[in-house]
Amino acid sequence: MIKYMKSELYRVVHSKGIYLLAGVCLSITLAVNLILAYFRGVEPSFAYGNTAFAFGMLGGFMQPIFFLTLLMGCLIFADEYKNKTIMNSISFGYSRLTVYFGKLAVAIIVSAALLVLVLSIFIGSGILLLENSGTEVLCNLLKGFGACIPILITGEVAAITFAFLIGTVMGSTWTWMGVFVCVPMACELLGMKFEIFARISKWLAYVIAGEGTLTEDMGLVLVWMSRDGFIRCILAGLAGIAVFLAIGVVGIRRKELV
Questions:
Q1: Strands (DSSP E) along the chain, which ranges?
Q2: pLDDT, tens digit, for every residue of 143-191?
Q3: pLDDT band at 211 (very low <50, low <70, confident <90, very high)
Q4: What DSSP string describes 164-211?
Q5: Cα 67 from Cα 205, distance rounded (Å)
């Protein structure tokens, strides 16, 4: 599988899509700090020109970040069926599960590198350009991403699994949206009447990624800021990874890829 992973990494590194995604993410995060720094310079009493606001804002955007896992999955899988590259991989002696797990591993490696790069630029530019609010806000930001990493991996595993099983980017995209967006919405609506759906909703990845409560003294308190919430993020993410891996393994064994 190592040889297959190397070939996939080579393909991804030499594709334009990953650089376009990285450029957009870096541009947006850097622009946030530049805009806040500009208004802080124009108006010294500007209340949001500090790292507490900037870091807290990014930490509260886990749901939009979660959608990037779908995009990353599509970039990594590419048009394997359309271009017949899966057929070539299997003809070279790779098994279907080797191709599947190889792509998952490459997706996680590339995503981790991109996340580290974007976070480093965002945190570094925030400290340089904005009023430093202390290490606590930075620790909260890193804690939030640490708690949500299993959830983000769940999104990627699901995206690549659906791409393998369905075979088209459009079909796998709509399936992913249905599972992670429509199902939680339905559970939240049904949860207003049936307690069992309310309990299920609290363990769904998309719901947890955006869960938070407003308080008078602390403002927006995100789910991972509490011990129980942090543990729930980790457990929900690990459970999601296990479920979609099982679906992928069983489905790919039954599906003819060539």
A1: 212-215, 219-222
A2: 999 999 999 999 999 999 999 888 788 889 999 999 999 999 999 899 8
A3: confident
A4: HHH-SHHHHHHHHHIIIIIHHHHHHHHHTT-HHHHHHHTT-HHHHHT-
A5: 11
Tokens for 226?
């509490």
DSSP state of 224: G
Distance of CA 48 to the CA centre of its chain: 26
Residue pair 237/151 in contact (Cβ under 8 Å)? The answer is yes
First to last CA, the chain: 19
Sorted by sequence, the CB contacts under 8 Å of residue 250 that are 6+ apart come out as: none
Q: Phi and psi of 248, rounded to 5°?
A: -65, -45
DSSP state of 131: B
Rounded alpha-carbon distances, angstroms, from residue 104 to 2, 72, 87, 107, 161 = 12, 11, 18, 5, 9
Return the structure tokens found at 99.
């191709």
Which tokens in the block code for residue 205?
Answer: 């990845």
- Percent helix, strand, coil in the chain, to 5, is 80, 5, 15
Structure tokens belonging to residue 198:
């309310």
- Under a CB-based contact definition with an 8 Å cutoff, are residues 130 and 36 in contact? yes
Q: Would you tell me how many other CB atoms lie within 10 Å of the CB of residue 234?
A: 17
Rounded-to-integer distance, Cα 214 and Cα 47, Å: 19
User: What pLDDT, on a 0 to 100 scale, did the predictor assign at position 221?
Assistant: 75
Whole-structure pTM value:
0.91
Q: Quick one: how many helices (H) and strands (E) in the chain? A: 13, 2
Distance between CA atoms of 105 and 1, rounded to whole angstroms? 10
pLDDT attached to residue 241: 96
